[in-house]
Design goal:
Length: 296
Amino acid sequence: MKPQRYASWTAGKLPLPELREMKKRGEKIVMVTAYDAPSGRLADAAGVDLILVGDSSGMVVHGRESTVAVSLDEIVFMTQWVTRGAKRPLVIADMPFGSYEISDEQAVSNAVRLVKEGGADAIKLERGGTSVSRARAIAAAGIPVMGHVGLTPQTSTVLGGFKAQGRTAEQARQLLDEARALEGAGCFAVVLEAVPAEVARTVTGSLAVPTIGIGAGADCDGQVLVWHDMLGYYEGHAPRFVKRYADLGASITDALGRFAEDVRTGAFPERQHTYAIPEEELAAFEEAARPSSPRR
Ligand code: KIV
């Protein structure tokens, strides 16, 4: 029998090789982003397979204009929080811009931090090109790697903005080459972001590992959405590929408005929201609090 501490730590975790089996069986893989313990717990309770601690946090949680400034420390902290809440889903930590561009050594060392300090099960990095070599080095170090091609927000300036990719034959062929190269480097899955559905279908059919689509049509092996976008917990403009499953922003504004109203009118707090004190203790306290009463 396994020692209890190991058995409890891994109990119920979705085994990574199961993802390829799901692709073979045609069973869709469900992935969502999360950035803290309650959202990790809720995603787990909802039966989500993969949780991405995405650098989208920079925009949807921290209000930045892009993901570029997100630091490795931020992703380490958020991964710690998410892994406290999520037990069954595999938790994938995003490598932020600047944490893997310099060398394979830098990439491996930062991926190790995400696993050792953050508790991540796997990491994700963006682009083909030099990222193929980074993915190979990280996978060789024993850390599962997810690739990400198409619209890669960390390099959106080079791409000309947050725009769909792979819309010419040449771009689509390049995207396919990148996805194949990432698979060859040992990636266990590849995210396809903002690419035409037909292109994503061909890429998906060309890989043995699963593709996870976001704005890439229904033929990917799985789908991912950003927590704040899909739950309407974001006041900005959501991309066209987002489907909103809730309107939490409106619910929260409404709840806060009613709280403010209750405080201002004295309707909150009520008796049930306060603590009792025995009568004799209260009498003694009030006696002691009287300005003229002598101090003992
Ligand atoms: O950071 C993120 O949330 C992502 C997803 C959009 C795939 O990379």
